[in-house]
Amino acid sequence: MSQTMLGYIKQDSPIHYLTGATKLICLLLFSFASMLTYDTRLLAIILIFSIVMFKVSKIQFKDVAFVVYFILVFLLLNNIAIFLFSPYEGVKIYGMRTDLFKLVGPYTVTVEQLFYQFNITLKYLSIIPMALLFMVATHPSEFAASLNRIGVSYKGAYAVAIALRYIPDVQRDYHDIAFAQQARGIDMSKKEKLSKRIKNITAILLPLIFSSLDRIETISCAMELRAFGNNKKRTWYSARPFKKGDYIAIGVATAFLVVAFLMMIKNGGRFYNPFL
Length: 276
What we know:
Helix content: 55-70%
Distance between the termini: 50 Å
């Protein structure tokens, strides 16, 4: 799989043996645990656990490298925005101020602000491996069965499955069209001016939109011929019953959520304050 594509990657691992419903439930539980608390200790443990699970899945970093780089850039920009718009939020939260150095105007870097923004970054990083793992270790059809199992209508679940299934195809079409246009002399490299590059990109987007519409029409016709949507319920070929490993995984994820609640009670709130 190309590094710029993100989709299901088949591997022989304990993570792949779990049902789609189990992986979805675990992702939600870990997300709730991570979003509930700002306790650095628990977030660090969740991050380490997520990385270990990613390693257990046997998914190679190169398969998701492009997405990881994009996320890191987003986190960098997010931290810059937080500091620009709220440079003393950490001071308000932790009730102390320890200046490190002054920048310009009203901006002064403080230990408390750095710690606050570190925790925000840690919150994102703690759940990102789990989210990526869910995306690359869950087959779209199995994911649809999982959504339907937790109460989502099978029409909506199937729509999500189709979208996930064809993301790699759309990405592949984009690259094919881009290479074809470049072969015709349309330059989209950094050598061209930004305005010219934006104009040249439309030479890719229009064919991509039309090819996607053709694919949508083909899929719609095929589903209508199979009388999709006539019945209120349907069975799923990819659905699997829960096994021992599924219950263990859900139990571990639930334990993390319970610990997050306990840490909130112990800390007297969502924030862990090491400055007291």
